[in-house]
Design a protein that fits this description.
The complex is a heterodimer of chains A (about 300) and B (about 270).
Chain A lengths: L1 H6 L12 H8 L1 H29 L15 H8 L1 H32 L6 H8 L7 H12 L6 H9 L13 H27 L3 H9 L4 H28 L4 H6 L11 H11 L3 H30 L2
Helix pairs in contact in A: 3-14, 4-14, 5-9, 5-11, 5-13, 7-9, 9-11, 11-14, 13-14
Chain B lengths: L1 H28 L22 H9 L2 H33 L3 H13 L2 H15 L5 H26 L3 H8 L4 H12 L1 H16 L3 H6 L22 H21 L4 H5 L7
Classes of the chains: A mainly alpha (about 300), B mainly alpha (about 270).
């Protein structure tokens, strides 16, 4: 590839004709172009990460002057905290649940929407609305919709079931989990839907026509015509979504505040509480490093996949 | 065949209702008089709509300042992120700068959990005097959205034919001139789409703003903290503020609908 590039005018030194600064700028063009963005990422990601590595090994506390080296004590503190483990459990359970539901619903919706019909454009616009709304507002809207005495949810349910319903949607387990899942599914099913629809639309229609001519059933058609080209798209959608789902914070913050008790603490919410409510900065930093290491395995796998899509 | 069509219609109909009902409830509550809040059955359309919650949300809850902050911060960080992102993407797409490593490194930032970097950024912001300033949040958001702008533009430049740029280089234009006067105008639709996605991402962001601001540079989403638990029953105010915040990003989102797949998958799928 490198050889091929130098053969084109991009590789030639058109700047040789110029002198001074502009020649220098032209010679180093490709590096000057990446410099600002690279610098910003270095300042906001690499430097903070290195700094936080130091914070994780000392005692960083606004009350106590000096930063004594404490070795692995901060990490041990996190690992010994039952809440750290239970919040990790909640994070894993919730993210797998929401991603599974969003995948199934998104696929059903994509299959329903793949054929053109009247008003399809308008319907499409409605279906993608949740993607453009702040998760904070989504959390708050569902709190408003579900919470008694104000929300109409209980009333609608009692009309539907013909008996009185009084559920504490955001105050009691297990309903509180249901509410979180509901809010997340509302916001992110369109994400799955849009990506899967793009994957479905890319399948050439003549394959379906051939299957229909051969008298292949609907399930068989899905299994042998739709699934093979769609599988990589499914994998992409699920991994992208999963990596965002494990960060779940905003909806928890607005809808449950981690409650009742600590029942809906997710890892992000737990680390926020430890760091910014109790100000155990070093402990929170150590915890976020552990979380990052846990996630990096998945992140690296996904990044490789994304790159493969970009280098045909 | 008819059964299939019915199943499709039911699925689509169900989703339209599911998506619209909570939104309708929020928008309608924003114009409900307080008397209509707690009735059974609920009021689905108020007999006497009122705008009083909007004035309260904007002035008593400092919604106006949040709105101005959000506009300033989102616009500035969009410009920063899109300019830097387009420059980097061009270099990556045309020169394969840094091989695959640089491109990989940028996109891996997208998956970094914010909670992993926010604590050190918070401490550094306090040390640098950037805490609770607009400029601090602008820089933080430009950083946060760089993977999005770089990768959207990277995908865009790669599908753009090189021939015009090559002709410009042969004609003696410098690389800067070629980028600025030939490539950028050709990529303008892609730049615009990337900018809108960046703007929406910043406009709806909560976590960074929650931690890096307090009394001065707060953005619209952070104001919703005031309504946690609804002890004061300010349903109308909360809904008015939500409506003010969600309307602009939905309108913008409709404008870039065509580019949605590219935006959601960071350019991995074209759609």
């Amino acid at each position: 590839m490198g050889r091929a590039v130098t053969a084109t005018p991009f590789g030639s030194t058109s700047a040789a004709r110029r002198g001074g600064l502009s020649a220098w700028a032209d010679l180093h063009f490709k590096w000057l172009m990446v410099a600002p963005a690279t610098l910003l990422i270095l300042v906001f990601s690499i430097y903070p990460l290195l700094f936080s590595l130091w914070v994780a090994f000392v005692n960083y506390d606004f009350q106590i002057p000096g930063h004594a080296f404490v070795g692995l004590q901060n990490f041990q503190q996190v690992l010994a905290d039952p809440l750290a483990w239970s919040s990790l459990g909640v994070t894993i359970a919730l993210s797998f649940t929401v991603v599974a539901i969003e995948f199934v619903l998104g696929l059903a919706l994509a299959l329903a929407m793949v054929k053109t019909f009247r008003w399809r454009g308008v319907v499409m616009s409605i279906l993608i609305i949740p993607l453009f709304i702040s998760p904070v507002i989504v959390g708050q809207s569902w709190a408003l919709f579900l919470q008694r005495p104000f929300g109409p949810a209980d009333y609608l349910l009692s009309q539907l079931l013909h008996r009185s319903v009084a559920i504490s949607w955001i105050g009691e387990t297990p309903w509180v989990y249901f509410s979180i899942v509901l809010a997340d599914v509302w916001q992110w099913t369109p994400f799955m839907f849009v990506i899967l629809l793009a994957g479905l639309a890319a399948i050439p229609p003549h394959l379906y026509e051939a299957a229909e001519l051969d008298g292949v059933g609907a399930l068989q058609t899905f299994r042998f015509v739709t699934l093979p080209p769609l599988a990589p798209v499914m994998l992409l959608a699920v991994t992208l979504r999963l990596l965002d789902a494990v960060k779940l914070f905003d909806v928890i913050f607005m809808l449950t505040g981690g409650g009742p008790g600590t029942a809906t603490y997710t890892t992000s919410f737990y680390l926020y509480q430890i760091g910014f409510q109790q100000f155990h900065l070093s402990m929170a930093t150590a915890g976020s490093w552990l979380f990052l290491i846990l996630l990096s395995v998945v992140i690296i796998a996904l990044v490789r996949r994304l790159l493969r899509a970009e280098t045909p | 065949m008819a059964r299939g069509n019915l199943a499709r219609a039911v699925t689509i109909g169900f989703f339209i209702v599911f998506i619209l009902v909570p939104l309708y409830w929020v928008v309608i509550t924003s114009i409900k008089p307080a008397n209509d809040y707690l009735t059974t059955p609920p009021v689905w359309f108020p007999a006497k709509p009122t705008a009083v919650h909007y004035t309260a949300a904007l002035f008593s809850y400092r919604g106006l300042q949040g709105l101005i902050n959000s506009l300033v911060i989102a616009s500035a960080s969009t410009v920063l992120s899109t300019v830097m992102g387009t420059m980097m993407a061009y270099s990556l797409a045309r020169f394969r700068t840094g091989g695959n490593h640089l491109a990989l490194w940028v996109i891996s930032q997208r998956f970094l959990p914010p909670v992993a970097v926010i604590l050190p950024i918070f401490l550094l912001f306090r040390a640098w005097g950037l805490y609770d300033t607009r400029i601090g949040l602008i820089l933080a958001y430009a950083f946060m959205t760089l993977p999005l702008s770089v990768w959207m533009m990277y995908a865009y430049f790669r599908q753009l034919p090189k021939s015009l740029e090559e002709a410009a280089l042969v004609d003696g234009l410098s690389r800067w001139q070629t980028f600025w006067m030939v490539a950028t105008p050709l990529a303008a639709p892609g730049v615009a789409a990337a900018a809108v996605f960046v703007f929406i991402a910043v406009w709806t962001e909560f976590f960074f703003a929650l931690i890096l601001t307090s009394r001065y540079a707060f953005t619209l989403p952070t104001i919703f903290r005031a309504f946690l638990g609804f002890q004061g029953a300010q349903y109308g105010e909360a809904c008015a503020l939500a409506t003010v915040s969600l309307a602009p990003s939905i309108v913008l989102g409709m404008l870039v609908q065509r580019h949605l797949v590219r935006g959601l998958t960071l350019g991995a799928l074209r759609g």
